[in-house]
Amino acid sequence: MLIEKRQNHPFLYTGRLLGDILTPEDFHDEHQMIADLASKFVMNEVYPKLEKIENQEFEETVSLMKKTGELGLIRADIPEEDGGLGLGKVSATIISEKMALGRSFAITFGGQTGIGALPIAYFGTNTQKDTYLPEILSGEKIAAYALTEPSSGTDAMSVKTIAVLSKCGNYYVLNGEKQWITNSAFADIFIVYAKVDGTQFTAFIVEKSFKGVSTSAEEKKMGLKGSSTRSLILENVRVPIENVIGEVGRGHKIAFNVLNIGRHKISATSLGTAKRAIELGVKYANQRMQFGQCLSSFNLIKNKVADMVIKTYVNESAIYRTAGMMEEGFDYMKKTGDDFATTIAPYAVECSINKVMSTEALDEIVDEAVQIHGGYGYMREYEIETLYRDSRINRIFEGTNEINRLLIATTVFKNHADLSEGEEWKNGLLQHERQILQLIKKLFHAAIQSINKNSLSNFQIEQEIAALLADMVITIYAIESAILRTEKLIMRWGEEKNRQKLDCTKVYTHEASQQIALRALNMINHFGDEEIFSRFASRLIMSSSENNVLIKRRIADVVLEKERYYC
């Protein structure tokens, strides 16, 4: 696979598509083995205990975490020199996707493998790794990530928790409160962010056994009822200076880079949940009789099923493209000796893209699956009702989607470069879709020109413009990922075997481009630059040359026959 150069997010700046990408069809035997292991664990070990987990019988959760440790699932992408298996980001993404079926347990597991373990694994000293990682990776001890506070929310840098160095210089005294901390009821180790002397944002390892550490009662949540969510209270907690992670005042490097990985893991978990929602929806539609025929025979139901599958195919393409890129980046780090921060930071935009796209797609997919169930979807005894409630938090987790949009827009605006025309378009099954993609890229660059021309670059004020810019970036990455995957597989196996993928790519490209163009046209007056925008946006509004109604029926028929996500 060709490595995408990391400068300036090249998918935005070249007129031609960027070579080979990793797809799920590229999984080798080790990947398939990992997927099978994780799936069997969830179905055989987690599913039978979901009722107890949902009732917050946390001893079941703790026991299951130890089993994941025994199976090596926690240590999958931790470097071998730190006690991990070093299987890479693709395997870790597969595990996150498969664990999604464990619902609340998936949140506990994700907190352990991502934002709980990675600050120590990536940024800790050798002594910290030797002290804490073995029991975290074995599941013997549970880790939690303590960043959010009642007054700070998504604004991580405004935390009020204070750390003061003792007169003897041997420890810091921490005081403050952290809110909505996952795993807090049974966590043994907390990654806590505090400001040394009220100014220097710093990461600390705080043990539950330290005097002055306590937690509040469980929060009463809308969903994910089987996960633990409490406040962490720190009252004159003495933390040895050896427990500072990284440098004093440089905690943001740890927090933000670990959150990038966390966002990617949430994307994979959302993907797994979306596939489950599709399965529940199509099975119910095939079984439910209305007006003397199966619900699945109605074309409006087929339209819903097709939309669910199309979004999932494109989302899956983008997520595993990113996983492949990140794995290559980490492999390159081993050769060059770069640090983790330098390696992770270039993927911040892609991680945010996937987080926004996957969590919003999931909400739409789960909502439609409930609609297919009708009144039964509103009943607690049906699994889809639980998925509906559980899914909503994902758009808030790891930075709200609004914050992630601002991050995307700010980053791509700062790194903007000119669009190269690239190669001539070649004839092919997706030639029209390639041309549409190129038009969206031109619209994106026209938007940036207009922002500069009209002094609209203060995104703290011009947040609507930032959101539009971010959604253009998301649309470009999504469409390009789907086209690259589909063309790759058509070259490998031919058109007929990839008809479903081809159909999904065509419909998504048409509908997503229309949506983004319509939004751009509706904001022309605010930009004050009609000429630049209308050149590209109006062309994207044109109707499709395909019969998308029949294509969607064809997509749905395949999935209804398989009774699961199939693409």
TrEMBL record:
Domain Acyl-CoA oxidase/dehydrogenase middle: 144-237
The Acyl-CoA dehydrogenase-like C-terminal domain, residue ranges: 457-527
UniProt keyword annotation of Flavoprotein present: yes
Keywords recorded for this protein, A-Z: FAD, Flavoprotein, Oxidoreductase
Pfam families: Acyl-CoA-dh_C, Acyl-CoA_dh_1, Acyl-CoA_dh_M, Acyl-CoA_dh_N
PROSITE patterns in UniProt: ACYL_COA_DH_1
Residue ranges the record marks as coiled coil: none
Superkingdom assignment: Bacteria
The Acyl-CoA dehydrogenase/oxidase N-terminal domain, residue ranges: 29-140
SUPFAM superfamilies linked: Acyl-CoA dehydrogenase C-terminal domain-like (SSF47203), Acyl-CoA dehydrogenase NM domain-like (SSF56645)
Cofactor(s) recorded in Swiss-Prot or TrEMBL: FAD
Acyl-CoA dehydrogenase/oxidase C-terminal domain ranges (all copies): 249-411
Family: Belongs to the acyl-CoA dehydrogenase family.
Protein name: Acyl-CoA dehydrogenase family protein
Species: Robertmurraya beringensis
Lineage: Bacteria, Bacillati, Bacillota, Bacilli, Bacillales
